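Design request, tokens follow.
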């Protein structure tokens, strides 16, 4: 039977392409439809679309919380704030992921414990979740439409409980990164990344308070009182091997995207570096010492959240410095995964303060790393040399 089929195939080829062997070879590709399919569809295109729409819908929810009277703020056991915006955004995004990819796991920052205990808080979040809807029904359908009930909302929130790991597909989700920035009207980001075998592979950041214009200069006012008015609101994204993009944050179907890349600076002394607003989250003193050793004279740009990664990826800033205070603080994977793949795909690299690659495959935290440094690929060795000098001098 096999040799008969082979003979029949050869007859067919002869019939359709009797003359040139070159043409025969080229056209024979059409006998392998699987190969053609992989040319037509890019890897992870469904994951990217679902992540973009899910982050867009959740970002709209957070904006609605910001403009409402009460943000339902609670203080968590580590003394950090969480709001009804964080809970609502996490529930919506996990329900979108589980609709499209039911087998995938999620490492999410929040859980439903507080909402299960407090009926009025639960009702507030449920109201938000119900009214967060994309204005395009096809887009809304792709992320599963509305969450059907409060129980489904609580279950979705609790499905962010993956332990993480090095095998398979795991999403890292920070429903509001920079909650303090969110509360004070500064920068914050809705952050989602798909990790495949422990490697951030698809990343999306929703930054409602960053300027749409990739060329807009970064100034000190970016971190404070960045009202979400006209000309603001961006979705950044990247897929490993496919580059990074930005697009305006819309309310329905996805807007067209633009490619982004890091700025090429020839001399490190011209760099602008971005750091946290909160002085408890990174060591402003060490960062100033590093900048000065690099000959940097421009003041740092302080802003909350992964908006810093987005800003260096689009060339508005150049360096991300997050020097640790204490070796014992373990950075959370959801605070970095999306930003890291976006920076890498824009021509940058991110390591820890000692130059070690960030290891996203060992659980919910980057426990084998200490501090974070991001820079254009060509400049990273020079930056790391100075970072190590400053850190070693303290040991
Ligand atoms: N001690 C310490 N060291 C380092 N990082 C910490 C620390 N405490 C908290 N966090 C995490 O910081 C996240 C906020 O992001 P940034 O630090 O980049 O922004 S900023 O400090 O608010 O300016 C913040 O994320 P969200 O909780 O999502 O806002 C925290 O996960
Ligand atoms: Mg938090
Ligand atoms: Mg965070
Ligand atoms: Mg958060």
């Amino acid at each position: 039977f096999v040799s008969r089929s082979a003979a029949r195939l050869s007859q067919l080829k002869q019939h359709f392409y009797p003359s040139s062997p070159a043409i025969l070879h080229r056209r024979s590709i059409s006998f392998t439809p699987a190969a053609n399919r992989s040319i037509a569809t890019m890897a992870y295109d469904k994951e990217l679309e679902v992540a973009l729409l899910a982050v867009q819908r959740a970002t709209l929810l957070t904006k609605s919380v910001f403009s409402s009277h009460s943000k339902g703020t609670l203080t968590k056991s580590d003394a950090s704030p969480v709001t009804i915006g964080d809970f609502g955004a996490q529930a919506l995004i996990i329900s979108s992921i589980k609709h499209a990819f039911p087998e995938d796991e999620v490492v999410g920052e929040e859980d439903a414990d507080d909402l299960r205990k407090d009926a009025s808080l639960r009702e507030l979040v449920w109201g938000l979740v119900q009214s967060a809807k994309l204005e395009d029904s096809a887009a809304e359908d792709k992320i599963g439409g509305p969450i059907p009930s409060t129980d489904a909302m609580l279950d979705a929130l609790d499905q962010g409980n993956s332990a993480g790991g090095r095998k398979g597909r795991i999403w890292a989700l920070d429903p509001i990164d920079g909650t303090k920035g969110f509360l004070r009207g500064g920068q914050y980001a809705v952050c989602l990344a798909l990790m495949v075998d422990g490697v951030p592979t698809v990343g999306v950041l929703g930054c409602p308070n960053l300027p749409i214009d990739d060329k807009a200069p970064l100034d000190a006012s970016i971190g404070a009182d960045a009202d979400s008015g006209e000309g603001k609101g961006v979705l950044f994204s990247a897929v490993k091997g496919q580059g990074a993009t930005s697009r305006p944050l819309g309310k329905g179907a996805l807007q067209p995207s633009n490619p982004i890349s890091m700025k090429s600076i020839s001399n490190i002394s011209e760099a602008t570096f971005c750091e946290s607003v909160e002085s408890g989250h990174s060591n402003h003193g060490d960062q100033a010492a590093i900048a000065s050793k690099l000959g940097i004279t421009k003041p740092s740009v302080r802003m909350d959240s992964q908006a810093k990664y987005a800003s260096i990826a689009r060339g508005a800033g150049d360096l991300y410095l997050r020097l640790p205070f204490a070796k014992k603080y373990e950075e959370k994977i959801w605070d970095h995964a999306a930003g890291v793949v976006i920076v890498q795909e824009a021509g940058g690299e991110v390591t820890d303060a000692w130059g070690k690659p960030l290891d996203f495959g060992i659980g919910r935290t980057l426990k084998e790393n200490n501090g974070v440094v991001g820079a254009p690929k060509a400049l990273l060795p020079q930056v790391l040399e100075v970072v190590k000098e400053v850190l070693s001098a303290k040991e």
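Comment from the thread starter after seeing the answer: thanks! Confidence is low (pLDDT under 50) at residues 1-38.
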